Amino acid sequence: MNRMIFVNLPVADLAASMAFYEALGFTNNPQFTDDTAACMVWSEAIYVMLLTHGKWRTFTERPICPATSSEVSLALALDSRAAVDAMNAAAAAHGGTADINPVQDLGFMYGRDLTDPDGHVWGPFWMDPAAIPAN
User: Fold this and answer.
1) Can you state the angle between helices 14-23 and 81-93, rounded to 10 degrees?
2) Strand runs labelled E in 53-120
């Protein structure tokens, strides 16, 4: 079996969260989607499981963080600076918040952080490995 990652996220509104992630370029896998959870696919190895609060509570009794907190930041490598900008624009247009932190532009690396409607932090970035400064 290939190594894969499934990121589980509690969400307040499953349909709105699915629409948000689809707007960012994720696709839905209906085989693992029902009225309590949705499997959103980023790549053959990266999946985001959107879980209603009720479903989330079947996994843990730990409290769900408020949308204003940051427990983790998940970075996604994209193909270009334009793709980073487009993902941020899509986030802002579909219930998320773009540019929650200052834009990071190091020349060889460019990133803009965003949140989904539930406050989960994503950091789309682009990097040119050939332009990384030598130490």
Assistant:
1) 150
2) 73-77, 97-98, 104-105, 109-111, 114-115
- Cα angle for residues 101, 102, 107 (degrees, 5° grid): 130
For 82-120, how does the pLDDT look when each residue is reduced to its tens digit (9 = 90+)?
A: 999 999 999 999 999 999 999 999 999 999 999 999 999
Q: What pLDDT shows up at residue 102?
A: 97
Sign of the Cα pseudo-torsion (7, 118, 41, 37, in order): positive
SS3 130: helix
Tell me the C-alpha distance between 26 and 66, whole Å: 24
| Measured distance CA(97)–CA(116) in Å, rounded | 7
pTM given for the model: 0.89
